[in-house]
Amino acid sequence: MIDIYSRYIVGAHVHAHESGPLAEEMIKEVFGVHGVPHVVHADRGTSMTSKTVATLLADLHVTRSHSRPHVSNDNPYSEAWFKTLKYAPTFPDRFGALGDARAFLTEFVDWYNHAHHHAGIGLHTPADVHYGLASTTQAQRSETLAQARTSHPERFTTTTDPKILDLPPTVWINQPEAPSPAAA
């Protein structure tokens, strides 16, 4: 599971098969740590469309959102994360056993959340954004540039900081349409 604003991986499990009860277990674990969201968006896989998951989300008053059938770009944040995972230099051709896959994913998620500087979130790490540390990081970047400019002014062509990429104000998968002025 991924928080689409921060790109932080809030939960990742590896099992030999998928099922509604396993998805429910992960969802409960994630919600117990990170709180209950307003919306959960998922593909149309059997585990996420199962009665077990549907009942859990309904009981928690969580709106379910699903990708359209056969439309991969309805889940762009997950698809981008999978590409980062699969094209990582450390991604193996195959895993020797289920435990190897679990160990790899645990290490990869830790790297992704805490060391990967993501272009979509101003080159911050997902953890910095998720835990509200991005403004501190931006201030540190600005201070570092100021020190570099003072120490080596010949390396800079301007007296202002380069544009530090901003965090997006909001992110959506299926943004609700604003009501038309006539309907208001």
Commentary on this structure:
This protein is mostly helical and 184 residues long. It has a domain at 2-96: Ribonuclease H-like superfamily/Ribonuclease H (Nucleotidyltransferase, domain 5). 41% of the residues lie in helices and 7% in strands. The protein has six helices and four strands; from the N terminus they run ββαβαβαααα. It has helices at residues 20-34, 51-59, 76-86, 98-114, 126-130, 134-151, and strands spanning 2-3, 8-9, 39-42, 63-66. Strands 1-2 form a two-stranded antiparallel sheet. A two-stranded parallel ribbon has the order 3-4. Strand 1 and strand 2 form a beta hairpin. Helix 1 (20-34) runs parallel beside helix 2 (51-59). The two termini are 36 Å apart.
In short:
With 184 residues, the chain is mostly helical. Helices cover 41% and strands 7% of the residues. Helix 1 packs parallel to helix 2 (51-59).
For the structure shown, list the relevant keywords.
184 residues, mainly alpha, two-stranded antiparallel ribbon, two-stranded parallel ribbon, globular
Percent strand equals: 5-15%
Query: What's the Cα radius of gyration?
Result: 20 Å
Question: What gross morphology would you assign?
Answer: globular
Structural class, from secondary structure content? Answer: mainly alpha
User: Within the CATH hierarchy, at the fold level, what is the topology of one domain?
Assistant: Nucleotidyltransferase, domain 5
What would CATH call the class of one domain? Alpha Beta
Count of helical stretches: 6
- Mean pLDDT metric: 90
Strand order of the largest sheet: 1-2
**Which second-level CATH architecture of one domain applies?**
2-Layer Sandwich
Number of strands: 4
The percent of residues in helical segments reads 40-55%
How many angstroms does the end-to-end distance come to? 36 Å
What is the chain-wise order of helices and strands? EEHEHEHHHH
CATH homologous superfamily identity of one domain: Ribonuclease H-like superfamily/Ribonuclease H
